[in-house]
């Protein structure tokens, strides 16, 4: 009974606190790992959208609260930290093949650096930047939804910002042409992330 009461109190109290919070101040933020996910998917023989995720994303956001369009974003991903959930690891280390294989991500760091941010709605915008993949760098655009902000998270007691992002690229532009068109050229990337104040260097 006590556990049920505590859970009920938590569920109904935390959202109220979050909605009443002041916005996070301007400054440098970094991704909050436990609350960040980067997943990608491609067409698989026209039958499904094969989906995997990266577990090693690191991002830095220089946040400008007064003028969000003047903010700046840098994202770095280790492609070797990919998780495909391939069900037969005794047959093949599929994660290693995708992350480091020459026909795939080649073990080369993935990096996205913003160049321009356009705010096009109350909570939406587009981040234009340069995406480095397999050692090649080309323009890419991320559509972003600003989910919310608070000067002090009710549990973590630090400022937080939350975003959802989506990016679609043609992998062939970066030389990743394996099995096209059986495996789709378009790669859809979905990002869910929270940012917290960056640690002092």
UniProtKB/TrEMBL annotation:
Statement: the UniProt record of this protein carries the keyword S-adenosyl-L-methionine: no
SMART domains, per the entry: YceI
InterPro entries named in the record: Lipid/polyisoprenoid-bd_YceI, TTHA0802/YceI-like_sf
Pfam families from the UniProt entry: YceI
Residue ranges annotated for the Lipid/polyisoprenoid-binding YceI-like domain, each copy included: 28-196
Leader sequence segment: 1-20
Keywords in alphabetical order: Signal
Name of this chain's protein: Polyisoprenoid-binding protein
Species assigned in the record: Pleomorphomonas diazotrophica
